[in-house]
Amino acid sequence: MTVRDPSDLVDDKDKKTAAPVAMKDKKNEMQGVFVIRDKKSKFVPVETGIAGATDIEVKGGLQEGDEIVTGSYKVLRTLRQGVSVKIDNAAPKKEEEAS
After folding, report:
1. Which of 6, 20, 67, 92 has minimal Cβ neighbours within 10 Å of its Cβ?
2. Closest by alpha carbon to 37, among 15, 18, 65?
3. Using CA atoms, how far apart are residues 66 and 62, in angstroms rounded to an integer?
4. C-alpha distances out from residue 58 to 1, 11, 45, 51, Å
5. What is the pTM of this model?
6. Is the pLDDT of residue 33 over 90?
């Protein structure tokens, strides 16, 4: 889950520079997720319900079969609309144990 100002939701190819999100008016921010459509990122506003420390209920906004982009907070805060996304559904690698 991330937040975006509507002015940040212009496709990357149509936008020369991205203004820092911290400089935006927080009143206009929308809560949502990035999904993959045609191998590109697309921000989708969602309606949320119950939220816990690590989980958030999504009550509306997504379609069945939507693939949601996941990653660290830093990655999701800097992800832009319309950029190419590589799909990697491999299980995360565990760090090798020290012998």
Report:
1. 92
2. 65
3. 7
4. 10, 24, 10, 9
5. 0.70
6. yes
